[in-house]
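Marked as duplicate of an earlier ticket. Keeping the data here for the record.
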Amino acid sequence: MCSYRLDAEYADPTPLKVRIDTHERYSERPDEPAAAVLAALALTGTEQLADIGCGDARFLAQLAASGHQGPLVGIDTSPAMVAAADAIPGVRGVFGSAERIPFDDNSFDVVTARHMLYHVPDPTAALRDFRRITKPGGSVSVVVNHPGTYPHTSELVAAHATTYGVGSAVTMTVDSDTLPEMMTQVFGDVRIHRSDNALVFDTPEPLVRFAEALFTLYGVTPNHPRRQAILTDLREDVEDWFTHHPGHTWRDPKGYIVATAVVEPE
């Protein structure tokens, strides 16, 4: 049974930051999901926008820094992430879940939900609530990964976690294969932008750092008594792989879709 808990995963923003930074630095091709979302939305800069599951709020910070004039709200179930949003000038952080968003109907011109719908017990209920809080004519944009993204690193972490009896990864309830139909049922027409890419590492350390940033997803919490032993064993395996594959890179396929819909009047 998986011991993953969402509150443990996002109590500390550091692992999320490591994952985001890894994608920025070690992607085979430029990887800019935020830019893909903005391209899909074609914002004017005056919209009332809510980012659901805002994480460390760097997307909202980017909007604020670009001169967005409309209200920007970051909604998250993690107090640390809400505080991160609140710390950004021009952004309001709000505690709340994706299935019961604490805003009235028709509150926002735009709703975004980036790389978070996997964590929601009932993704369809969340999509319905995204629609509820979006004004008629407004847009909802959702980003999810391809199924089995970076499989080699995931296998590595899972194997070491299992060796120590920690558990297995959380089962993702939605991905790029299943989201389009789910959104079609809630919104009608949906536009899809697909990105296919890979993480590429040519030295051990950034791979180890990225793998460690996945630990909580596999039940290896920051205070787990065997965490350091798991990390030590994993590091040895990674270093051994590079030793026995001179001149090779560790390449891990990944990708995502941006699914965007316009809310039609009821």
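See parent ticket for discussion. The chain has a mean pLDDT of 92.
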